[in-house]
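Quick note —
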Amino acid sequence: MPPLEPPAFEVHFGSCSRGSRPHRWLGAVVLVLSILVFTGCRPEPRADFVIHNGPEVETIDPQILTGQGDGRVAAALFEGLTRFDPKDAHAIPGLAESWELSPDGRHYTFHLRTNAVWSTGQPITAGDFVWSWNHAVLPETGADYAGFFFYVLHGQEWVTATNRSQLPPLGIRASDPFTVEVDLENPTPFFLELCAMRVMSVVPRFWIERYGDQWIRTDPVPCSGAYQLEYWRPNDRIRLRKNPRYWDAAHVQLKVVDMLPGDSASTAVNLFLTGAVDFIADKNSIPTELYDRLADDPRFRRFPYLGNYFIRFNTTRPPFQDPRVRRAMALVIDKRRLVERITRLGETPASGLVPPGVPNYSASPGVGQNALDAWHQGRNPEEQEKAYAAALEANAVEARELLRQAGYPDGKGFRSFSYMFNAGGGGGGKMHEQIGVEVQSMLKEKLGLQMELRPVEWKTYLSDMSRLNYDMIRGSWIGDYADPTTFLDCFTSGNGNNRTGWRNAVYDGWVAKAAATPDIDTRRKILRQAESLLVAEEMPIIPIYYYNGMMAFDPKKFGGIYPTLTDEHPISAIFQKP
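Predicted structure written out below.
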């Protein structure tokens, strides 16, 4: 494939300031180091490995982060009892070198490594884990992923209670300085994978109590992972340096790693093709219009993973409190059209939430499944198209009737509303906009509804979604472990990742019942009931498609990077090839 045109950039002479230029230009400055020498700025040595990390990081605090790029940084800096195997993302020993599980599956005993210390030299003890987990479940901490602690004994009570004075202790304790004991509400087969998640990492109590919520902005930041923070320059880069005190430092090969921010997919690809970036970890940083052109390039790898793209409703705002309205809108969205015209990475249109690949589970069919079934039933392409078109028309008829029942015949009286998405320079941002334009057209054509597009920057997107400051918003979820609950738990009433305002006691009860059910077949049936309520009856979300991923790196230069179902690629496992 011929090289793409390098990105345009600007260089301002006479200043070495790094905080004033937009990051889309700063990433390209590495291409003109010789120019910078003449301006009086001394260029830093290139990192051993440079990652294009997507939108600017919001926080590196593992307990409160939400973005995938934020998590990528935090995973290098902080570790939990377990960590992810780079080849298949199952849990392997982390700060705990071993553990035992009781016969009833509800009690773990973790044995910490006696050589585990913070990057600042203090020992990491069982008491640090007890404090960290108790800190994560406090509402004032603001951990959106605090729902992971629901599996720990009394965890849900701590996360959701308004009065904590009479609560029993969280089910974690230190029986000695190097032994952590954890009690679970119920047997949880994926609990070791949960222990590898960012929110369950150990954090430095001695530092947080000294500096409060500004602890991550101090120098040095005490780290427990394979890397330590050398500096964080917003709109420029985050530089990580190998942590010499890390318990497994002998096997960490990359000494210096840079994480570059950027919203422009075209810039990301050009930086990669010109050698300024070694790894593009997020498919949203690769322009969709290049997918076909890159198909035969061994540096750009496609792979399936546990992800779902969907649309959220704010169910606290009229008219979206009415499930008839939500169902009507879901019925007229042509998901096949979206994946064929826009995403173009071989994605599968979705009516359910849980993606393929989860063991012992298949998604419960949701609204619009009839059209997807019709798509595959014809004997030849012409018959398939006819069957699919007929199913879409039948769905539109049902949708118009639902709107009439809700008080909006032919869309009359239905207020104008907005669809929010994070905008950017190509890649994911452009794709989100294109999907919004198509959905806007479908709702107008089939239901007579007026939807306005509301593109916002990444920080505003995250903030407004958390505060329910939207009508409809694009959403996605990447599974944290290979179990349907990693998706279904998100929409329970007390989960910080729900972000729809939807609360349903029946749904909560089914999810809780499944958690207490050890039999695999019975548990699967209960979870499918919950998923059916979510995607076929109540519809606080509209599933659009299941993800395929794409990442970019040169396999001749680097190893230790593998396609995994959860899209985890630990930096500590990556190495340069001779």
